[in-house]
Amino acid sequence: MRRLEGPVGGGASHRAPGSGTPGLVTLVGAGPGSADLLTLAAAKALAQASTVLYDHLVSEEVLALLPMRAERIYVGKRAGHHAMPQAEIIQRMLRLARSGRDVVRLKGGDGYVFGRGGEEAAALAEAGVPFRVIPGLTAAQGAAASCGIPLTHREHADALVLVSGHLADPNGRMEWDALARPRQTVVFYMAVATLPQICAELVAHGLDADTPAAIVEKATLDDERCLVGTVGTLPTIAAEEHVTQPAIIIVGHVVSLHAVIGEAQACRVAAMA
User: Fold this and answer.
1) What's the pTM?
2) Which residues participate in catalysis according to the annotation?
3) Pseudo-torsion of CA 253, 255, 258, 261, nearest 10°?
4) Is 168 exposed, middle or buried (CB count within 10 Å of its CB: 0-12, 13-18, 19+)?
5) At what angle do helices 86-98 and 117-127 cross, to 10 degrees?
6) How, if at all, do strands 81-82 and 77-78 pair?
């Protein structure tokens, strides 16, 4: 594997503007929210950053680690509002790098897990722009650990499935029969609006409506909420509690362990030193 030498990424470039040598793009996973959960590599990249393209799900706590001098460019997406289309984000990133500037592309969670990091890495590779990738903890990992819900457990789950909850595909590619199988944990991302449909489809395809399920809002942050119910009751719970994005839905018998592990945890992951 080709390794790029030099600083972890995003620092001031020694290239002269207009020299024709592109800058280095560092794709950074910001983790689920709490700055305490950044990797060391991510923290170093942020400390050296001069130009940052950041998404909606990057927390203020993480952004506070950027140098005051760093140029911050918001390119976030949220339901019903995209600050910049994905194609334009990629072109903006390429233009900045081709001008000789080092760029940090900062994404919530892990860029390669429903973060379109693969699309951006492929575009950089095709354009011949040097880049590196710093992974981050996924939202599923952060939410599960913070709430005391192990994603896998020998007595409850032999498999872990991560699924986009947008359900926007008109061709209906969602494999509900596979998602409704027993002895697995299924985690739905970006699924608050489609939660009633998800639960109805799971039951219609054979999953017991009494299967434990949870929704975790603002995982690992100070105002995190973890609401537990079943596949049959979770849509009503989420509606009554006015749950909003960002939130993660966890379905499977591992959720039953929240009553044992979650209540016994001395402190949440976000509060750990």
Assistant:
1) 0.87
2) 55, 77
3) 60
4) exposed
5) 40
6) antiparallel
Over residues 185-242, the pLDDT tens digits come to 999 999 999 999 999 999 999 999 999 999 999 999 999 999 999 999 999 999 999 9
- Residue 1: what residue type? M
User: How high is the pLDDT of residue 168?
Assistant: 53
3-state helix/strand/coil string of 199-257: HHHHHHCCCCCCCEEEEEECCCCCCCEEEEEECCCHHHHHHHCCCCCCEEEEECHHHHH
Beta pairing, strands 247-251 & 212-217: antiparallel
- Tokens, residue 106: 């900062």
- Cis-peptide, bond into residue 32, ω within 30° of zero: no
The two tokens of residue 59 are 């927390």
